[in-house]
Q: What sequence folds into this?
């Protein structure tokens, strides 16, 4: 007799992880119970455990799921956009769209929940640090390219500029979650872009006669 196949999963993993991200974003990792996760995802606790493991495993998979989408967004803005001010503006405004997707605003799932757990959970700490370093590298390469193209003053350090840009993402997330208005943060973005990507004036050629 042929062995019958097991029952196929009756859910979409990405949808479940999206719902887990939403649940964890509200109360964080520690305060979110398995019962709340089960209600949020639409799965009972045994099904949730069989598919994703314990709560820490589900949280880590939710983080990785969120980071994967973040990478795709960065590829469309920081990497693909050739004009640095436009790239930064798209990056920060795109982040705001995510941070204000719910009411009240929840900020960034990673940077508003993971740092709290990083000390007690080494895997969370490693994932968080990995994302920070990845963002530093990506933004640093973009600033280096802009400097080499003459779009930035030569004395600026791309690595430090990258940290400032990433710090802007962090503060936007915290301020959004704390209740600062979107309009206020949009004004802050415009000022920040002007600081991070100052318009360089073309140098006047020597020897040109004045009329």
A:
């Amino acid at each position: 007799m042929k062995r019958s196949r097991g029952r196929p999963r009756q859910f979409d993993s990405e949808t479940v992880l999206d719902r887990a991200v939403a649940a964890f974003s509200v109360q964080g990792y520690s305060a979110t119970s398995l019962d709340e996760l089960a209600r949020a995802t639409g799965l009972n606790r045994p099904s949730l455990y069989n598919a994703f493991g314990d709560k820490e495993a589900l949280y880590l998979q939710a983080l990785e799921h969120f980071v994967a989408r973040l990478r795709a967004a960065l590829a469309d803005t920081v990497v693909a956009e050739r004009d640095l001010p436009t790239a930064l503006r798209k990056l920060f405004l795109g982040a705001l769209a995510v941070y204000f997707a719910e009411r009240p605003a929840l900020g960034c799932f990673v940077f508003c929940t993971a740092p709290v757990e990083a000390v007690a959970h080494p895997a969370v700490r490693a994932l968080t640090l990995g994302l920070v370093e990845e963002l530093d590298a990506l933004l640093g390469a973009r600033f280096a390219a802009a400097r080499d193209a003459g779009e930035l003053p030569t004395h600026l350090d791309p690595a430090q500029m990258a940290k400032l840009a990433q710090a802007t993402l962090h503060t936007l997330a915290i301020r959004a979650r704390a209740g600062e208005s979107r309009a206020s943060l949009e004004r802050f973005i415009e000022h920040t872009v002007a600081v991070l990507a100052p318009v360089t004036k073309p140098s006047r050629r020597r020897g040109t006669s004045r009329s």
